[in-house]
Amino acid sequence: MKPAQTRRKIDAPASWAELPWGEYYRTAIEQQLQPWWPKFFGFHLLKIGHLSAEIASDKCAISHQVNVGERGKNMQVFASPYQLPFAEKSVDACLLSHTLAYAADPHRILREVDRVLIDDGWLVISNFNPMSMLGAGKLIPVLRLRQPYVSRMFTQMRLLDWLSLLNYEVLHLSRFHVLPWHKEGGRFISTHLPALGCVSLIVARKRTIPLTFNPMKFGARKPWFSRAVGATKSYRDQP
């Protein structure tokens, strides 16, 4: 597997407004999450990073919502995403809105989030799609050092591999907003060619038992859930 860690320093934007067409992306993500917020339950929701903090989550059933970041005016907790100051299994849901796109070590962030999430906790990840018009912009030398092309764009399959290793069940997987400069992302083309969407979204849950039944281990004395296996991916277009 291609290593995700990099030594290259990537400056994350302080808000969606600092990205070209950033407000369009934020609105598109919020629309995609509207049906999911009422399904989340528990006591604590973490929104890690400046972009996550600006995602509207007033429809979420979890009332205690905490913005976490290393700096910023709208942060309640100042902390590194690599070292979250929360106890193990103390958080019910976590939002990583383009947090991994500006991370030097996204694996480490996912492991830290997994540490603080309770069993069956919710994880939401949004990212830029490299197989899109934005991804094509990274091939142009003049653009690749500008926002948002400077960000790290991971394919959904790669993100799914990472979640599989941590034993997460993917409940929702989508790509949308094909035309980055259009307020609605080009509704017609986004409906018929969603694979080219500039933004991808994953909604997953942390599982503690294997999600793939293995009859060879059924009835064995040794606990059959002693080690994590790959998560079953159950995609639904609509929740």
From TrEMBL:
Q: Which domain of life is it from?
A: Bacteria
What positions does the domain Methyltransferase type occupy?
77-125
InterPro entries the record matches: Methyltransf_11, SAM-dependent_MTases_sf
Identification of the protein by name: Methyltransferase type 11 domain-containing protein
Natural source organism? Yersinia aleksiciae
